[in-house]
Write a structure and sequence with these properties.
By secondary structure, the chain is mainly alpha-helical. It is built from five helices and no strands. The mean pLDDT is about 90.
């Protein structure tokens, strides 16, 4: 899958998650305003502008860095060149806020991440 295909897949996934969350929320009685708010968060609308969207992005990125990065690197290091893995990290970093950066710098990273 190329970069355009990946972005389209991710966008469709955000929409799917928003629709699914909306259906669940509606079924248990949440109002339309709250449903719309959660859907916007899941679609990552106004990243870098909406503090709630940014906080959710920071949390997702920090979870990835803390709990999944090592396995990701191990799994894909034979498939991707080092520069591709670094590019993924750079893109993740760019999506994070300054407070997200500060939190990421305090994490303990597995030695398995580094060759």
């Amino acid at each position: 899958m190329d970069g355009v295909g990946y972005k389209q897949w991710r966008t469709n996934l955000y929409k799917f998650h928003g629709e699914t969350a909306g259906e669940i929320m509606r079924a248990v009685g949440y109002d339309d305003d709250m449903i719309a708010r959660v859907q916007a968060l899941l679609r990552k609308e106004k990243l870098k502008v909406n503090p709630e969207t940014q906080m959710l992005e920071d949390v997702v990125d920090l979870v990835f860095l803390q709990h999944y990065l090592a396995d990701f690197v191990v799994k894909y290091s034979s498939r991707y060149e080092e520069e591709k893995l670094l590019d993924i990290l750079r893109k993740t970093w760019r999506k994070m806020s300054e407070s997200g950066h500060a939190a990421a710098l305090k994490l303990n990273y597995s030695r398995r991440c580094w060759r």
